[in-house]
Write a structure and sequence with these properties.
198 residues; alpha/beta; Glutaredoxin; 2 domains; five-stranded mixed beta sheet; two-stranded antiparallel ribbon; 6 helices; elongated
């Protein structure tokens, strides 16, 4: 057998081995893609209970306007807990603004701390068109421990979803939780996994 024929044979063997490797890797990527589930808003056990009525509160915004949180409303309310010094909050605020427009939600920003810091945040991030509440009471009654945290309240005043949020997908998971009747995306996926035959 000549040197050229041997090298061609080795080249074809290498091509076949590489092809089989690519097919095996593609299959493995498909398996991993199925196993990696989308993550929703992270629900903290100490927070408010999904499926229970939200506390009804009559509050004032930074500008002095009256706001009703909880209870029967014309639209679902999305309470977004933020703080001026929170870098993730600055990232999620513009996302939340476009999200509530698409989902037809009433967006209410909630924070606590120095009113002047909150007012500067409203000015800097152009939040004048939204209710901005500066009250520690709301966060305490909703069980908020970390930021940014969101609570979705349906028109009947029931908590439809709640959790830590830092992306559009996390915000969308709150609406999905309401639509599916599951308190979180994780519990919905767990139900799907239990219902699948092994």
């Amino acid at each position: 057998m000549s040197l050229v024929a041997t090298s061609e044979l080795l080249l074809w063997a290498a091509v076949i081995v590489l092809s089989l490797t690519v097919v095996a890797l593609a299959r493995q990527i498909g398996v991993l893609h199925e196993r990696i589930a989308p993550m929703g808003a992270l629900k903290i056990d100490a927070g408010i209970t999904v499926g229970k009525p939200a506390p009804v509160m009559s509050l004032k915004t930074l500008t002095g306007a009256a706001v009703e949180v909880g209870g029967a409303q014309l639209r679902r309310q999305l309470l977004l807990f933020v703080a001026p010094g929170c870098p993730i909050c600055k990232k999620i605020i513009p996302i939340a603004r476009s999200f509530v427009e698409r989902e037809h939600l009433e967006l209410i920003f909630v924070s606590d701390g120095d009113a002047q810091d909150q007012a500067r945040m409203v000015e800097r991030l152009d939040l004048k068109d939204f209710a901005f509440i500066n009250s520690p009471e709301v966060g305490m009654r909703m069980g908020v421990g970390k930021l940014p945290y969101a609570v979705l309240i349906d028109q009947q005043g029931v908590v439809a979803g709640a959790g830590l949020v830092n992306s559009r997908e996390h915000l969308e998971s709150l609406v999905v939780a309401q639509e599916t009747g599951h308190p979180s995306v994780q519990s919905y996926l767990a139900t799907l996994n239990h219902s699948r035959p092994n």
